[in-house]
Design goal:
α1 packs antiparallel against α2. Helices cover 79% and strands 0% of the residues. The chain is elongated and about 75 Å long. It has 2 helices and no strands. It starts with a helix and ends in a 13-residue tail after the last helix. By secondary structure, the protein is mostly helical.
Length: 80
């Protein structure tokens, strides 16, 4: 999971740098290009965050099933 976090930080940093370049350049087509690049990097970072959240959720639910599977099986509340 550390690799994902590192990659996420890198994407966010690159997106910020592209947005800064977009803001500083005086050439219109370069401004548009770097703005679009920043948006794309932000979208990729969002996707990595969603994948991380899904992986953590799946890991949590899987470990809970292994630890206490009896809680997942409905029991008959009436006495036998």
């Amino acid at each position: 999971m550390k690799d994902y976090r590192t990659h996420l930080e890198t994407l966010r940093q690159q997106a910020a740098e592209a947005a800064l370049i977009s803001a500083l350049t005086t050439v219109q087509h370069k401004r548009e290009l770097f703005a679009k690049h920043a948006e794309h990097l932000d979208a990729l970072a969002d996707e990595v965050e969603r994948a991380m959240a899904a992986a953590e959720e799946e890991a949590t639910s899987t470990s809970l099933t292994r630890v206490c599977p009896q809680h997942l099986i409905p029991t008959d509340p009436s006495p036998a």
